[in-house]
Design goal:
single chain, elongated
Length: 91
């Protein structure tokens, strides 16, 4: 479960960065909204997977509620999921 969570966390982090730094500028500066639709959908699915897996890993690793809250908040901060992977998921 932890290995899958690491993969989803990485992909979710990449999708957030793509959305914020590539897709959104394309939409609002160059009026090309197509990438937001594609990347936004992928990010949404990965975000939901990240949250669901975070709860599963919370139970598996016996995290405190504080740690779970940090993991959840990190999912909405650019580069946050990469921090979580290094801080809480490396052995």
């Amino acid at each position: 479960m932890i290995k899958l969570f690491k993969i989803i966390a990485f992909l979710e982090g990449i999708s957030l960065l793509l959305l914020l730094f590539i897709a959104m500028p394309l939409k609002y500066i160059w009026e090309m909204p197509q990438m937001v639709q594609v990347v936004g959908m992928a990010h949404g699915i990965l975000f939901l997977g990240y949250i669901a897996l975070a709860f599963m890993v919370y139970n598996e690793l016996k995290w405190s509620l504080k740690t779970l809250a940090i993991v959840m908040i990190a999912s909405i901060i650019p580069f946050g999921t990469f921090y979580i992977e290094k801080k809480y998921l490396t052995a």
